[in-house]
Amino acid sequence: MMTSHAALRKFPDWLRWTALLWLAFWFAAYWRTWGAATFVQLCDIAVILTCIGLWSNNALLISSQALSSLLVDMAWALDAGWRLFLGRHVFGGTEYLFDAHFPLWVRLLSLFHVAMPLLLVWAVHRIGYDRRALALQSAIVICAMSAARFTPVAKNMNFAFTDPFFHRAWGPAPLHVAINACFMVVAIYLPTHLLLRRFFSAAAA
Q1: Domain residue spans of the chain
Q2: In this predicted structure, what is the pLDDT of residue 48?
Q3: How far, in Å, CA of 10 to CA of 135, rounded?
Q4: Residues 160, 109, 90, 184: is their CA dihedral positive or negative?
């Protein structure tokens, strides 16, 4: 029989089913609107793995996507808000949100970027932070950026062709991917990892 302490570290069934239903609806809408290539984007991978993590009570998946999403989603919200109120982007990457060629209801599904940080912080608090998350997310970002090199250049998915700050390519494809991946790991994932490890208990084995 599951102890009360162990039960508290599991996600409630209503949330697990909500995550599963959301994933099915969101996945179908995104596939139809943006095409299959959209699922190599790190933010879309985060939705998929977070929903699977919630459904399966998997602390490693939840922890890895906390690394992937907390700072990045805040940057997404800043860029989208800056464009909405001041008419220009800060980093880029949210241009599609204002493209009237696509249905508004589908574009509004991207507001998951606003909810994800809150959900993931709560989930890590409940289930614990898995210290292996940094290694897993580092592998995911390398694979995702490498795969993005096979998508259209104009979409610049995962900034696999030009970076978000200087808007330039850093040498040949392998070098550019390596530099971008290293930036994500060192500047975004590692600080988030240290904070989560400091403030949240370790996930149960």
Answers
A1: 12-199
A2: 98
A3: 23
A4: negative
